[in-house]
Structure formats: C-alpha cells, structure tokens
Amino acid sequence: MIALDRVSKVFSVGPVKVPALTDVSFRVAKGEFVVLHGRSGAGKTTLLKLLYRAETPSEGEVEVLGQHLGKLRRRGVASLRQNIGVVFQDSKLLPGRTVYENIAFVLRVLGTARGEITARTFDALRAVGLHSRARAYPAQLSQGEGQRAALARAIVRRPSLLIADEPTGNLDDEMGGEILQVIRDIQSSGTTVVFATHQARLAKALRRRVLVLEGGRLVKDEG
Question: pLDDT, tens digit, for every residue of 15-62?
Fold first, then answer.
C-alpha cells in the first residue's frame, strides 16, 4: 500500500536549506492501521503530504497504491487522490453549506450520478453516526460532530487509504475517543489508515504499530 525508500525532504527558506525529513524508509501493508507519532515539528505533516502528493521528496522514492509518486503527472495525481481520504485537525468544512452538501460536493466534483450521490452521502453519514445532522450547518455542530462530518467527507469516495493528521488534537478525551472509534470502524472494513498524533499517551493507547519521528528521522518502528 505504501513504501518509502530513503526519503528526504529539504525546504528552501531564502538561502537557507531546512531539512524536514532525512533518510526515512518504511512500508505499510494493505488494511494496516499505523500511528505516526512525534512532537510538533518532527516532520509528521510533511510525511503525510508526500503520501497524497501535496509535496514531493528531495531524495528517495515514495510509492502509494502501487504508483511511484515522483513520476506522476497532473492527471495521475488527481486519480491517486480519488483513492485517498484526508482528514485534518481542523474539519475545514465549507461554512455556507450543510453537512450533506459538504459531503455530496466531493462526489459532484467527480461527476457521480445524482442518485448515487444521495445514497453514498447518507452511507458515509451513517458510518460516522451523523445522518440525523445532514441538514445542519457547520456553525451548528459541536467540534466532535464537525470532525465526524470531516471523516464522512473523507470516506464518501470509499478510499483505499485514509490519512488522519491530528484529527483529535482539538477535542476533549470523550470526543476524541468517539472519533478514534469511528476510524477503527473504517479500518475494520479494509481501509488502510495512517494516523498522526503528537500525543505519546494516545499513540500508546491505540495499541497499533507506531512509527516515531524525531527531528525528521524515523527513530522507532514498533508494535
């Protein structure tokens, strides 16, 4: 599903070269749930961006869903992203659209038939326990509901890979636990999950394989 081979990423800030990732290698199998752990600035978000081709490596190779991402052209990138769902710490919902419209919009962009849009949107809402809030606007949602809506939007395309970048970072323990259970349920249906968190306690509590980043380097791969 995912393979990184000696991947490094360096950003240029004026004349200064700033390394974000250095010589990172690992593999993730289909259907696996992997936790990416590290403090803020460790390189987690940069690594995740490489997986959905928002960034490209300075060195090394990134392979996702059988494709070498460094060789993809624009059309190939669009095709790749149709098979990847991404959810962030901020739900990033469109404020002027209802929960239903936020999720259905993803399918409309893809040219999905109207009848299928309705069925798949409500399937995604039921999967996250939010079907009763379909007509609500983002401002009417709790933070936990907002993240559930963001998860529904991420899975409505039925992706092979779900990337979650600190999705519980703004939530209290109870709400965070609910979001984690939804993600576990998504993974149990066969979706591969890469879940990033800076919280050591959470990374341990998940009892999954944990990749630990420190200063842009992969220092542990355990579990």
Answer: 899 999 999 999 999 999 999 999 989 999 999 999 999 999 999 999
| CB environment 22-45: b (16+ within 10 A), e (fewer) | bebebebeeebbbbbbbeeebbbb
How many structural domains comprise the chain? 1
CATH label of the domain that carries residue 210? 3.40.50.300
Q: Which of 10, 2, 19 is nearest to 214 (CA)?
A: 19
pTM of the shown model: 0.91
Q: Rounded to an integer, what distance in angstroms lies between the CA atom of residue 37 and that of residue 139?
A: 31
For residue 100, which of 64, 72, 146, 137 has the smallest C-alpha distance? 137
Q: How far apart are CA 73 and CA 70, in angstroms?
A: 9
Helix 173-188, helix 114-127: angle, nearest 10 = 120
**Residue numbers of the domain that contains 9:** 2-222
